Amino acid sequence: MGADQVKFAAGEEFPFDLLPRPDADGGGEGGRDGDVEAWFLAAGADHLHFYREIHLHTDRIAYKIAVVKGGKRMGVKKLSGQRSLFEAGVYLAELLGRGNGSERFMFFHEKVWPELRRLEPELVRMYCTENGRPGESPVRLLGLSMLQFMEKVPDRQAVEAMTFDVRWKCALGMDLDEGAFHPTVLVRFRERLVAHGVEGIGFEAVLDILRQAGYLGKKTAQRLDSTHVLGHVAQMSRLECVREAMRLALEALEREERLARPEGWPVWWERYVDSRPDFRAEAEVLRLKMKQAGQDALGLLSWVEGLPEEVRNIEAVRLVARVFEENFESGGDGGVVPRRSQPPGAVQNPHDPEAQWSCKDTIKHKEWVGYKAQVGETAEEEPRAKREPTKAVITAMVTQEATASDKAALPKVEEGWEASDEGKPPVLYTDAGYSSGAELARAEEEGRELRAPVQSAPSREGRFSAEAFDVSVEQRCAVCPAGHDSTNCSRLEDGGTGKVTFRFEWNNGLCGACDLRGQCLGKGPSHRTLVVGEHHDLIQRRRREQKTEAFAKEMHRRHGIEGTISELTRGYDLRHCRYRGLAKTRLQNFMIGAACNIKRWWRRVTWEQRNASRNAVKKGIAAARA
Questions:
Q1: Angle, to 10 degrees, between the axis of helix 265-272 and the axis of helix 238-254?
Q2: Domain ranges of the chain
Q3: Looking at residue 415, what DSSP letter applies?
Q4: Domain 222-229+356-454+553-603 listed as CATH 1.20.58
C-alpha cells in the first residue's frame, strides 16, 4: 500500500497490519520508526503516536498508530461503533443466553451500555487532546466502575474480572481476547471525575434511561432519609491526632532539602517520627504528652513563619496549624494548654481532615467519624404483591458533612430534583428531622406537601407545653388549658438573625385564681407567658394531625426508605467509605445509587417478563379448555 492510497481523519487509529511488513516491524519495535514515520508523513499526517495492543492470541499482536491531522494528537482511545465477531456478546451469545449468572450482565450491555456510549463526548473533555499516549476509553472505565459497585468488588478484582470473565467482557462490549489495564487506571479515572465535577454522571445517565423506560415519571411522590457513613480512617484520640499531624508535617518538610533545620528538629523527629507513645500509660502522663505536643507544634509553626510562602502553604504544614488552633489555647505563662473541648467540625484524623465526628441519639447512643448520606427515592402508590420487586427509583444521593443537619440537606436535595426533568416532588415523605415551621410554610407557598411529623413541644418539669394551648398567630390570640383567652400579644424580632416570634401573656388576675396554676406555672412567675414562632399555626395543625390514625397509615409510604437504606448498606456497603475525602465519598455514593437502580430495574423487568409468560400460558390453557 502506498502513501497516495491513504487518507486520514483527525484522531484516526491506523493498524500496522495494513502496512507492508517491513514497515510495520520497523515502526513497532525498539523505537525504530523512521521508515514508518516517513511513510505516514508522506500521506499527510502531522503527528504519530505508537502504542501496542497485545491480545491473547499471539497471531493478533498488533501495533497501532494514533494519526492526527492539524497539529494535535489523540488523547483517548475511541470505541468502535461496529460490533466485532470476536465480541463476547456475539461470539458466545448462545452460552451467555442460557443464564448461569449472566443475566444481569447481558441486561447491562443491552440497556445501560448504549446510554454510556452517548456520554463519550462529555467524558473525553476530561482528557488532554494535545499530547500523551491515548488513554483508556472513559466510557469503558465508567461502565467498569458501575459494574464494580454492582458486584461489590475492589479495583484489582474488577480489572481481573474484566480480563478473564466473559460476562464482564459482554457487559462492556469487549472482544474475547481484548486485554485490560492496570488497576490504578481506575484511581486516575476517579480523580478526573472529581476534578471536573462530574461525580454523578453515571447516576444521572441511569436515571435518564429509567425515564425513557417509563419507570421514573414527573410529579411523583418521593421519600427521603439519611444515614451515617464511616470514614476510611481510624478513630483517633486528640493526642493521636496532634502527633500524627506533626509526623506528616515533619516528613513533608524533610523532603525540602534546601531548608536549614531548626535547633529542635532532632528532638521533634525522635518524638513524632521515630517513636510511638504508650497509650496504656496513666492519664497524667498522657496529659503531659499532650501539652508537650502543643508546645512542639507552636515551635514548628513559629519556625515555618519565617520560611518562603511555598513552604508555608504545604498542605501538611497548614494542617498542623489547623489542628493546633482546634486543640490548644494560650496559657497564662506564655505557653499553651489543651482546650477543654474541640470546636464543631474539628479534624479527627489528619489523613482525612474532612471526616468529622458526630453522634445521634436514637434508641442507643451512636457516634462516628465520617460523613452523612441523604437518600431519596420515589414512593410507590400501591403496596407490592408477595415477592414482587420494587418499582421505586433512587433519585437523590447527597453526601454532606457528618455534622450537617437534615434540615440543611433538604434544599440541596431539592436543587438536584429541580435540575432534572421531574422537578420537586408534589408530595415528600420524611421523618421529623426534616420538618419545621419554616419548611412547612415553604412547601405550602410552592404548592407542595411536606408529609412529616414535627417534634413535640418541650416541657419543663411536667408543666403544660405549647401543645396544651390553642394558638392562632394569625388572629394574635391564644387560649390556655383552662379556657382563658390571652390578654396580650407581642411581636418580637431578633435584630441579629431576623427571627420572628410571638409572645402571648395572661394577666395576674386570670392566673392567680386558676385551678391549673400548679401545672402551668413554676415557683417564680406570677403569670403565664408563651413564646411561639411565626409559623406556629402550621406546626400546631401538624401536631394534631399526626395523632390521627389516617396520618399514621399514610406515613407507611415513608417507611419504605428504611428498607432502601438497609438494601444500600447490606448490598452495596453504603455505610463504609472506600475512599478519603468528601468529593470521593460523594462519587462512591453516586455509584452505589446507580448500581442499585440498575439491579432493581433488572429484577423488575425479569419479574414482569416471567409474569407475562405465566399469564400467557394460563390464558392458553383456559382457551384450550373452553
A1: 130
A2: 3-68, 90-124+132-198, 222-229+356-454+553-603, 238-338, 467-533
A3: H
A4: no
Rounded Cα gap, residues 549 and 551, in angstroms: 5
Please list the rounded mean pLDDT of every run of 10 residues in the chain (626 residues). Answer: 43 44 33 48 47 38 41 54 54 58 87 93 84 79 96 94 89 83 92 94 95 88 94 93 95 89 92 86 90 93 92 94 93 82 93 92 76 94 86 94 91 88 88 92 92 89 87 92 91 89 91 86 83 93 94 92 95 95 96 96 91 84 79
Concatenated DSSP letters for 273-332? TS----TTS-HHHHHHHHHHHHHHHHHHHHHHTTS-HHHHT-HHHHHHHHHHHHHEEE-T
SS3 369: strand
Report the length, in residues, of the chain.
Answer: 626
Report angle CA 99, 105, 111 to the nearest 5 degrees. 115
Return the residue matching grid coordinates 460476562. Answer: 167
Which burial class, exposed, middle or buried, applies to 496 when counting CB atoms under 10 A from its CB (0-12, 13-18, 19+)?
Answer: exposed
Say if residues 455 and 432 touch (Cβ distance below 8 Å): yes
Instruction: Report the amino acid identity of residue 345.
Output: G
Using DSSP bridges, classify how beta strands 500-505 and 529-533 pair: parallel, antiparallel or unpaired: antiparallel
As a whole number of angstroms, the distance between CA 305 and CA 309 comes to 9
